[in-house]
Design a protein that fits this description.
A: 315 residues, MetI-like fold, two-stranded antiparallel sheet, 13 helices, 2 strands, 78% helix, globular, B: 597 residues, 3 domains, 6-stranded mixed sheet, 23 helices, 53% helix, transmembrane (chain B), P-loop_NTPase (chain B), membrane (chain B), transmembrane helix (chain B)
Chain lengths: 315, 597
């Protein structure tokens, strides 16, 4: 198992290098003088000169990339001129909040998505299946930002039972129960939208597996239906569901951009939106890179989990 | 033979359009979508106020105000008018983004799939890299560089969706690039570009269209999202997303300003998805044929004729007039047509026939193991110890599986669960019928593995099926069948997937077990050689019927039916050499003429 994990970690390295190249190239697409674009209204002649020197913007592209990646590896993601602080500090400060939100949503959408998908497959064409299928479609078609606003109207304005924004109460909050109260609405919004895809693919995977020969063997042994469905079919279907959850991590991270904006959650997503509208390019670059690296790691974890479930993958 | 259940044959063949309309959700989706499209298209000619004229004194009117059906926004603009104009923009942007992504993605996919080799490798690596991003973030980075604006948002969303198309199209292209018609076009002297666009593209086009229909809803959602964040449409231009984003500031005082455009986005995307799902269901042949249906615990039993529930003094197993078929639409195709046979205690009966003769379906019908849907047992009875299995409840039938009648299946690689250790799978068969502790069941499982001749059973116990050889796997299958000391073992082509020497050993094992345990064995095979080695009696099946039945020796010495003669002739003998073909040929000659005629 350890050997497998190390092997997978090694294959993640070229992916992360590739990610950095793509982000670098996108930033190189900037129309006009990049130094001016990065600095925006802070473009004094000294600043322009400094950033040209720091980032090597006057050199050819490959050389620029090398300078850039060397800086990154030393933890130097540049400086946000609008916030007037190093990018890495701002990103790391907000990373935790995003991980709490996205992580919770991911766990919720996995649990409910798999449950709904299994029930839907087991009761195929029955009423439960139709209801689940319909709600799945609603989830897939729902603009997450709109659902968030509806929840705020209902739970925070109408019934006044949950806070509408922020991560902690401004006065007197700060403990775990305060965090959970603030987490419920944004995490639920994000999870509802993501659950649809998981449920849909779980249903398909279950229906596929239920027709396999080894399920017939389980029946021929005289196992009751519960054991056939859960011990035999679901276990095999999980192998193909786990990677889907890895992909959903990307969806949830992306969706957090909207949700954090709607609920004023102090995470990377809200930071990115602000950074894009103020064209704080180095901050955008840092945030996107860190979020993408996080996504790669989650997928790595999904691969490892898959290999733990399926002994055939390890050899 | 097909038995039409419905009186009218014509009604079984619905056109795609009728199928789509019978799916009420898809029809509703189509209706809503057409309504929205019409309203949006007709916006310039409808009697609506100018969407951009502000009217400060009349701001934030609620819906159903005089002159403003849906009220006004924070600048006093008419929401209905803005909604329809905004819908136009959103649909247009979503469609354009889809078209751009489809064009470039398909181009990449076509070239990569058609060229193959290193070009394909490099292109797909790049696509994989792009897919390693959470793609909304990638779109944000692109907008950050290009600057906020509707066109830039459109480009960003189109760009991040290119990999999705490239992947799908490449897969299909790869699968047809060496098909005969492509090779023929190349040999006729067409250039690669010409072949790609005149031969490959038309065959890939349906996939492109389906992929577009499944992504267009997404694209509308995503571009609306960017506008909602203030990164897409800039004032005074408005799409649904930016209306929602601007209305958010009045969420507490005038919720309708943001709720109405949100509802429109939802209705638009939902109707597209409903319709898309319906179209996909209609086009997917697997859904039509029911190949994706979930099999029930027990084959559905819909007997047309009554059978006595008990038959006193019957043999151990007596099958009487069994008819099993497969339902497709409204017609039922019978695979087993009135099969009857008996099996005594300790006896071995060979059920022989070519593939498709209905022998496996017969065997699976005994305890309702035929996948259903589409399988249906339409008639007959299965007397086990004098009581009809098919008349019993689902629970009773399940309780007899493995306990009184156990199965050994053909391909042990696919019939064993790939993710459980072999001893656990045997132990599970034991605990299904006995209240036994885990360690005791495990010990018995290891003992059974020894019984079926697995060396180092204790070590092998923790192996997974893929770690064993084919012969060992089949021994595990047999051990599992023996777990509860059944009266009957049904072995369905137990040696077909194995090579010849292993085959001989497995047959030996079955013979020994039968002698030692007094088992009754129903052996299903297409090989008369196997029957001659193991079986006391033989029943020959053809096209779902038993055409000849009798003692093995007698049938072998004096086959009465033509088909039996042919099956026997198919067993080659050592040293027979070229004469084998000379012997077989005349037996098949008349049939060939029949089929040619």
């Amino acid at each position: 198992m350890t050997a497998y994990i190390i092997k997978r970690l090694l294959t993640a390295i070229p992916v992360i290098i590739g990610l950095s190249v793509i982000v670098f190239l996108i930033m190189a697409m900037i129309p006009g003088d990049p130094a001016l674009a990065i600095l925006g209204s802070y473009a004094t002649p000294e600043n322009v000169e400094r950033i040209n020197r720091d980032l090597g913007l006057d050199r050819p592209l490959p050389e620029q990339y090398l300078i850039w990646i060397t800086n990154l590896l030393q933890g130097d993601f540049g400086r946000s001129y609008i916030l007037n602080r190093p990018v890495i500090d701002e990103v790391l400060e907000r990373l935790g909040a995003t991980m709490i939100l996205a992580g919770t949503a991911l766990v919720l959408c996995s649990i409910f998505g798999i449950l709904a998908g299994v029930v839907s497959a087991v009761r195929q064409f029955g009423w439960t299946d139709r209801v689940v299928t319909f709600f799945v479609l609603i989830g897939i078609s729902m603009p997450a930002f709109w659902l968030g606003l509806i929840f705020i109207l209902l739970f925070a304005v109408q019934w006044r039972i949950l806070p509408a924004s922020g991560m902690y109460a401004v006065y007197g909050g700060g403990d775990l129960s305060d965090l959970i109260r603030h987490l419920i609405l944004p995490a639920a919004t994000l999870a509802i939208v993501a659950t649809g895809v998981v449920a849909r693919l779980t249903r398909a995977a279950m229906l596929e597996v239920l027709r396999q020969d080894f399920v017939r063997t389980a029946r021929a042994k005289g196992l009751d239906e519960r054991a056939v469905v859960y011990r035999h079919a679901l276990r095999a279907a999980l192998v193909s569901i786990i990677p889907v959850i890895g992909v959903q991590a990307g969806f949830v991270l992306g969706g957090s951009v909207y949700i954090e904006t709607v609920f004023q959650w102090p995470g990377l997503g809200a930071m990115l939106v602000k950074a894009v509208s103020t064209r704080d390019l180095l901050l955008v670059q840092g945030g996107v890179l860190v979020a993408a690296a996080l996504y790669v790691l989650v997928n790595l974890a999904a691969d490892v989990a898959q290999a733990m479930l399926d002994p055939r993958l390890k050899s | 033979m097909s038995v039409a259940i419905a009186p009218e044959i014509r009604s079984t063949r619905l056109t795609s359009w009728q199928l789509l309309m019978t799916n009420r959700l898809a029809a509703a989706g189509l209706f809503v979508l057409v309504a929205i499209l019409l309203l949006a298209a007709l916006a310039p000619w409808l009697p609506l106020p100018n969407p951009n004229i502000t009217d400060q004194p009349n701001r934030l009117h609620p819906p159903f105000s005089p002159g403003h059906l849906l009220g006004t926004d924070h600048l006093g603009r008419d929401i209905l008018s803005r909604l329809l104009w905004g819908t136009r923009v959103s649909i247009l942007v979503g469609l354009s983004a889809t078209a751009i992504a489809a064009f470039f993605g398909s181009l990449i996919g076509l070239v990569a799939g058609y060229t193959g080799g290193r070009v394909d490798d490099v292109m797909m690596r790049l696509i994989d890299m792009l897919m390693a991003f959470p793609y909304i973030l990638l779109a944000l980075a692109i907008v950050a560089v290009l600057g906020p604006g509707l066109l830039n948002a459109l480009y960003a969303i189109a760009l991040v969706n290119i990999p999705f198309f490239a992947r799908n199209i490449r897969g299909v292209t790869l699968s047809i690039r060496h098909r005969e018609f492509v090779d023929a076009a190349r040999l006729s002297g067409k250039g690669h570009t010409a072949v790609l666009f005149t031969e490959v593209l038309p065959n890939v086009l349906p996939v492109i269209v389906i992929t577009m229909s499944t992504t267009v809803g997404w694209m509308i959602l995503e571009t609306a999202g960017l506008s909602f964040l203030g990164l897409g449409a800039q004032p005074p231009q408005a799409d649904l997303g930016s209306m929602l984003g601007q209305g958010r500031a009045q969420l507490f005082t005038a919720p309708h300003v943001s709720m109405i455009p949100g509802l429109m986005i939802f209705a638009l995307v939902m109707s597209i998805n409903l319709l898309g799902d319906g179209v996909r269901d209609v086009l997917d042949p697997r859904l039509r044929s029911g190949a994706l249906n979930r099999p029930m615990p027990v084959t559905s039993i819909e007997r047309e004729r009554e059978q006595p529930a008990e038959r006193p003094g019957a043999a151990l197993l007596e099958v009487d007039g069994l008819e099993t078929g497969f339902r497709s639409g409204r017609s039922l195709t019978l695979a087993v047509k009135g099969v009857s046979f008996r099996l005594d205690r300790g006896e071995c009966l060979g059920l022989i026939g070519e593939s498709g003769s209905g022998k496996s379906v017969t065997a699976l019908s005994l305890l309702g193991l035929v996948a259903s849907p589409p399988g249906v047992i339409r008639n007959g009875a299965v007397y086990l110890g004098g009581r009809d299995v098919l008349a019993q409840s689902e629970q009773q039938i399940i309780a007899q599986r493995g306990a009184r009648v156990a199965y050994v299946f053909q391909d042990p690689l696919t019939t064993l669960h790939p993710l459980y250790r072999v001893a656990d799978q045997i132990a599970e068969a034991i605990t299904a019928h006995n209240a036994l502790g885990a360690s005791e069941a495990h010990a018995r499982a290891v003992a059974l593995m020894e019984t079926v001749g697995i060396r180092n059973a204790r070590e092998r116990a923790s192996a997974y099926p893929h770690e064993l050889s084919g012969g060992q796997r089949q021994r595990i299958g047999i051990a599992m069948a023996l777990a509860n000391d059944p009266d009957v073992i049904v072995a369905d082509e137990p040696t077909t997937a194995l090579d010849v020497t292993v085959q001989a050993r497995i047959l030996d094992l079955l013979r020994t077990l039968r002698r030692e345990r007094g088992l009754a064995l129903l052996l299903i095979t297409h090989d008369f050689g196997v029957v001659a080695q193991v079986c006391d009696r033989v029943a020959v099946m053809k096209d779902g019927e038993i055409v000849e039945q009798g003692d093995t020796r007698a049938v072998l010495d004096a086959p009465r039916h033509d088909y039996t003669r042919r099956l026997i002739a198919c067993v080659p003998e050592l040293g027979q050499g070229r004469r084998f073909l000379d012997n077989v040929r005349p037996l098949f000659a008349p049939q060939r003429q029949e089929t040619e005629a």
